[in-house]
Specification:
The complex is a heterodimer of chains A (277) and B (96).
Chain A: H1 3-6, E1 7-8, H2 10-15, E2 22-26, H3 33-36, E3 43-44, H4 62-72, E4 79-83, H5 85-100, E5 106-109, H6 112-118, E6 145-146, H7 148-154, E7 159-162, H8 166-170, E8 194-195, H9 211-220, E9 229-232, H10 238-249, E10 255-258, H11 261-265
Parallel strand pairs in A: 1-5, 2-3, 2-4, 4-5, 6-10, 7-8, 7-9, 9-10
Helix pairs in contact in A: 5-6, 5-10
Chain B: E1 20-28, E2 31-32, E3 36-40, E4 46-51, E5 57-62, E6 65-73, E7 76-84, E8 89-95
Parallel strand pairs in B: 1-8
Antiparallel strand pairs in B: 1-2, 1-5, 3-4, 3-6, 6-7
Classes of the chains: A alpha/beta (277), B mainly beta (96).
Protein name (chain A): Sulfurtransferase
Organism (chain A): Kitasatospora indigofera
Catalytic activity (chain A): thiosulfate + hydrogen cyanide = thiocyanate + sulfite + 2 H(+)
């Protein structure tokens, strides 16, 4: 796996807008953004409704994922290109989620919706119609998904990367500052975690830094890439972006995303928490 | 639930007295601009980002202290430094 297999630029997307085997998928933190406008022929996946179990805190199961992709008109051999707002946070999350269920060819639009907008490229309101498919998913690949016990066992032994902002890591904020500050969890971070904010992976326009810059970033922060790594944030979307960097761009196979992240860990009874920088 | 809505979060149901709110608008020649506003901490680290609303507005819930707002719009980037305090609205008008 390398950068050219998983990352495409806007010109590539523009050239494939009418390619029937390329499905462009918008996934936004603000799930209504698609309704205003989107890249022509893009379909929407709603991360709050389509990707979460409606009752328990967990993902939809394999069968529900198959139904979702079949209804969206996505086939197993389609190239799926994800993009979204917030510097591709939720597009990365959907990419990781599709890989969890074994989808083959998935890619991210470098810079996501923001760069597309800042470059003044066309967006339309028209919703495309794609014929339904019979998508077959695989069982979840838990080699890329971490659970809370994996995180506890990793303290002091494996790489733990907290990708939230320094203010959240230290406990001064409980959520990104575009959200009201919640009180349901304890502030802080998992002991021995390195704070490498997701934003260090990207330029201001949302595009990823070069592979050399990214490798240097993690080495400078003391991450031993020969060891297994677990990335986490608040709900697992920003850490999906860091997972994408480490696993897909830099080709590290031993990286997991902890989607329970701080909203789970910070609510657990009796676990160790560290405050401060 | 998470949601980086255009313009930032609304104030319905929010205990404003406990929040440190930074808000304002981005304009070009007096007209609202569609773009993005980033909130950077004192070390210059990214803390949050919102798209501006149709009227060019943005809002953050931060903590007391010094912050940099960075407006990103087609063809321009403008920084503004602000000092925010709890229970108050820090209003910032950014012309690009």
């Amino acid at each position: 796996m390398s950068r050219s297999d998983v990352l495409v630029d806007a010109d590539w997307v523009q050239a494939h807008l009418d390619d029937p085997k390329v499905v462009i998928v918008e996934v936004d933190e603000d799930t209504t953004a698609y309704e205003k406008n989107h890249i022509r022929n893009a379909v929407r996946i709603d991360w709050t409704k389509d990707l979460q179990d409606p009752v328990r805190r967990d993902f939809v199961d394999q069968e529900a994922f198959e139904k979702l992709l079949s209804a969206k008109g996505i086939a197993n051999d389609d190239t799926v290109v994800f993009y979204g707002g917030n510097n591709n946070w939720f597009a990365s999350y959907a990419f990781w989620y599709f890989k969890l269920y074994g989808h083959g060819d998935a890619r991210l639009l470098d810079g996501g919706r923001k760069k597309w907008e800042l470059d003044s490229r066309d967006l339309v309101a028209e919703v495309p119609v794609r014929a339904a498919t019979e998508y077959k998913a695989k069982a979840q690949d838990t080699s890329i998904r971490a659970f809370r016990d994996d995180v506890l066992a990793a303290i002091g032994t494996l790489n733990l990367v907290d990708v939230r902002s320094p203010d959240e890591f230290s406990g001064r904020l409980l959520a990104p500052a575009h959200l009201p500050q919640e009180q349901s969890q304890r502030p802080g971070h998992v002991p021995t975690a390195a704070n490498i904010p997701w934003a260090k992976n990207a330029n201001d326009d949302g595009t990823f830094k070069s592979d050399d810059e990214l490798r240097a970033l993690y080495q400078a922060e003391g991450v031993d890439l020969d060891k297994d790594t677990i990335a986490y944030c608040r709900i697992g979307e920003r850490s999906a972006l860091t997972w994408f960097v480490l696993h897909q761009l830099l080709g590290q196979t031993n990286v997991k995303n902890y989607d329970g992240s701080w909203t789970e860990y910070g609510s657990l009874v009796g676990v160790p928490i560290e405050l401060g920088n | 639930m998470c949601g980086a809505k255009a313009g930032g979060p609304d104030l319905a149901g929010v205990d404003v007295a406990n929040e440190t709110i930074i808000q304002g608008s981005v304009t070009r020649d007096g007209e609202p601009v569609n773009g993005y506003v980033r909130l950077l901490d004192e070390g210059g680290e990214f803390t949050a980002e919102v798209p501006t609303s149709a009227t060019g507005q943005f809002r953050f819930f931060a903590r007391p202290g010094k912050w940099t707002l960075r407006a990103l719009v087609p063809g321009a980037t403008v920084d503004r430094v602000v000092v925010a305090s709890q229970g108050a609205f820090t209003e910032v008008a950014i012309a690009v």
